[in-house]
What we know:
The structure holds 2 protein chains of 2 kinds. By secondary structure, chain A is mostly helical. Chain A is built from 15 helices and 2 strands.
Amino acid sequence: MDKLQQVNKNWIFGAATVALLFILPFVLARFGTTGEFWIWVTTEMIIMALFATSLNLILGFGGMVSFGHAAFFGVGAYTVALLMKKAGVSLILALIAAPCVAGLTAAIIGWFCVRLIGLYFAILTLAFGQLLYMIAFQWYTFTGGDDGIHGIPKPDFLGPTNYYLLCLVVFIACFLVMRMIVNSSFGLSIRLTRENLDRAKFIGINVRRYQLINFIMAGFFAGIAGGLFAELNRFAQTEFLHWSRSGDAIFACLVGGMYSFVGPAIGSSVLIFLHIVLQQIHQSLVEIWAIILGFILLGMVLFAPEGLVGLYGKITRKLKT
Amino acid sequence: MGIEFYLFLLINGLSQGMVLFIVASGLSLVFGVLRVINFAHGSLYMIGAFLAFSLSTLLPAGSIFSFLLLMLLVPLAVALLGLGLEIPLFRRIYGKEHLLQLLLTYALLLILDDACRLIWGGDIRNVARPDLLAGSIKFFDMFLPTYNVFILVVGPLIAVGLWFLLYRTRAGNLIRAAVSHPEMVGALGVNVSRVMTATFMLGCWLAGLGGVLMSALANIDLGIGMEKIIECFAVVVIGGLGSIGGALLGSLILGVGVAFIQLPLSRAAIVFPYFAMALILIIRPWGLFGKPER
């Protein structure tokens, strides 16, 4: 009975959050340019939350540390940029193509990577990610090299508010699909491979295939995030593929809590929010952002490895007893 | 372009490879004993290079003694910094999940790199070679830069020194024993955590030394730490994690490989380390000299 109440509570809480998120841009739109800026920021938060949640499919649930997840984000971004700028494809088609291309890339890279476990997997994903980064960096005629691709066309109907709503709808759809995956029998098997690889093999799970499928799905959703992000900024650049962006997603998972489904989305929003707040307080604080982030991470790793969600759980349990 | 040119390329590649070896052997050694891959190793190397730059502005220029003093002091300073990192931070995460270990060292990388930026700024710098090493040596009919030859002497010396330390001294016995049977070593009354701290400091010392040598070999800027850590990953993956001989082989392959590929395909040279790393990981994930993980 308690469990059921908890589930209901989660749904109610989720629905309330979604309703607030739908109202938010209309409230913000009343504040002129400041409001527009915050709409832009929240849109970025939504996209990055999707990216972090996609990473968590393999990181938190699969136990596979990938330092190359930005590769799929970047591939998605470049797909949208190239299709819209050079081929004149419409936004919707480009946004459908982005995850497909990213998923295909993930299938190729993942086929190699799932052969390895632990540290070696982490290093191989890093190597492949950087390989893609370098290719984008060097292939000047196709990707624009370190200039990137600028001036992605913007459909007329797409003001900041509409784009926010589009991202929100896509995010909610992806979020629910990923939640379904995680709670399906497939998702449970993936969690088993995280907890006990040998046992998973013993009971007849084809571990490599499961991990590969999981890897491809994570890449697929990262591609959507990348595509949305390219249209938001109206450019794609090599920095999207860089391993420091993979690092950002990993931090989001760590800060939010990688053993919970909503954790990464919360973590990434908190980090982006913190960054903006520091910027508003004083510009010099942003210049030492990496140091601040580093210390936050150190603290989380040493004292709260289960993230904000874990902390919240601990505190509520303490209050109850 | 005669044979001289290719010999010149070879010397250049080998000297780059030697610096890489000195740094990567530190990473490999630390991994072998502590089982932690230190993302911040490249940052320690960069700190070494920048410390050498700062110190060199205080010392009389051109004198070989100044440079030797740099080679003495800077690695020691980096090793002490390592001590300051190992005791409060690394000790807490031995034997924990890989993810937490990677994240901790990644956090350190962020902090150290940004600290470097605050202290030294984004300018490109280098350390002037001492007069004695600045010219070139006549080798048969060719002139080879003395400094590169100097590195080609120092690198093997370090390799032999490490081998001697690990396989011919009691300290080395303890380190190797701590790799394979830490509990047993502890049961025999050895302070294992002290062995670990000492190994970590040795790894940092090597990173610092690599930084000093690099500061006079090429230009240094804020990107060299990131660049070197990835190269180090490639080296230890090619050679096998935890193997010093493998690190030597891997470094030379990378150094010479990059130098020669640069010639026909300057663009492919940057991709080469990643490509080599991915290739080895696919066909022989434990590296040329390593052992498969149990």
